């Protein structure tokens, strides 16, 4: 299903974007994954990065390009993207798991250790997990960054969570 | 009769920017709005805005609204709320109604920043309680904190339909489905992706056939349509919802420009009838300017740029700023507009606006 007809990118489609790091880079540690695929006149991600690892240039509608070796995986860009299209992923969190950090704007915010369902780009349930960390900050402006673990093969598929207690959009 | 140098009608992003820009050059500005709160749609647009850092990017609508209001107040703009302009007469005399009082004001310059209104979609059952415009739903949810139902069908995949669906999810609503009659999603993919990953099905080439219920919406019937908008037999589908939310575009709210005799053109790319205007955003009636959605349906960020252009043009013709300095402000705003319009959709819109404005410039 394409972005224009179904509303979400395929995993293969996302992998081709200039904001998505190579597999080789992912293997080496936490990294930003920028799934921005259309000519949106927008660039807050550029100034959010303390390492100048994200560039857009002129015009404003160019896709963000990630200089993957400059990215330290700090995650500061995740909550800043107005399109909620940036994720922070540590592929090799441990032997079996990857850590996903994503922007989250639903109240109540989940708490550490809360059980969640992990969802794919199309909202389909991929696995269960628990909240590892919830990061909020004034400069995030009400967008929280939540982290959780998934089996490694789901690192580039898991893009949302739903706390188990929530009954929205069952 | 009261006299003002500049009256701005409408306090949304275009009107506020126009008022701030003109007041910055010493123009005495009165800003009118028929609503009880200023800001137009900004205060219900609780999502983070796209854009560049110099133009409020990443800020949420209410914060942009507050910032513009503070600027307007600190520059001495007089804001009059719950004040409806019901007519514009010879020599730019405005007829006002405020509560049980009527009034007249003579303005040297007028900027119409009246925004837009939602398009309706007619189908059997469209008058049942529970069929609502997406803008109305957004007002209820984000301004009044009332969720007008439990199970929602969203009709239309433009940015309004996509964003309001997301706000409904945030408010605890269940968006059962979003349908789009076109074969592709009209709004930005990132907005669609936020819904998709929450499990909201987005289905294209599909529309609402009718809405049924005894005295309120109980269910909707959907059908698939082909490229010529004909119903495809055998595709009927029934979904249980209590709100059908219609988000099928907007059209410029230009009654005041009609009343003032501004002259209009029908331009589909701009959303319908728009007042004819030149590059300074002046209409065919000298001293009356337009800015924002009334010049063609676009985004809040572009409305703010147009507000700047209209504000500076009014200040220039009032003699408060030299032509050269005004040109510099206009050039900067037009450069910004061109950058915002780099998308395929923006390019079509900008081409239509340029054609209109250049034509008026040559006296066509």
Q: Short summary of the structure?
A:
Chain A has about 170 residues and is mainly beta. Chain A has 4 helices and 9 strands. Chain A has one domain.
Can you describe this structure?
The complex is a heterodimer of chains A (170) and B (364). By secondary structure, chain A is mainly beta. The longest helix of chain A has 5 residues, at 11-15. In chain A, 11% of the residues lie in helices and 31% in strands. With 364 residues, chain B is α/β, with parallel strands linked by helices. Chain B is globular, with a radius of gyration of 21 Å. The two termini of chain B are 36 Å apart.
Number of strands of chain B: 19
Which ranges of chain B are low-confidence, i.e. pLDDT below 50, for 5 or more consecutive residues?
none
Order of helices and strands of chain B: EHEHEEEEEEHEHEHEEEEEEHEEEHHH
* Average of pLDDT of chain B: 95
Which shape of chain B, going by the Cα principal axes? Answer: globular
- Helix/sheet category of chain A: mainly beta
Features:
heterodimer, A: 170 residues, mainly beta, seven-stranded antiparallel sheet, two-stranded antiparallel sheet, 4 helices, 9 strands, B: 364 residues, alpha/beta, FAD/NAD(P)-binding domain, 2 domains, seven-stranded mixed sheet, five-stranded parallel sheet, 9 helices, 26% strand, globular
